[in-house]
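Entry 12.
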Amino acid sequence: MSDLIIHEPLAAQIREAAAQNDQTPEEMLTDLLQQLKRERRAKQFEAIMRPFGEEVERRGISEDELDARVEEIRQQLFETDYDDEPTT
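Predicted 3D structure (tokens):
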């Protein structure tokens, strides 16, 4: 892989922005990339969950009912995962 070359005046803008945040340019760019990844994952999660949320609304399920059902499923999964393990 070859090195990335960033020409002026963009390089100067990056250095200035990093300095304003008490970071090196590398730290600042790494943080920006991580933020972009988080935002992309959040958008993907929203896109996946939107139909689920719409169906919950369509069925008239309350937040408390949904929370109770999720907890019930979580408990079932826990029991499935740990009930068969030998005790020491």
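Annotation: The chain has a mean pLDDT of 92. The helical segments are 10-20, 25-59, 63-82.
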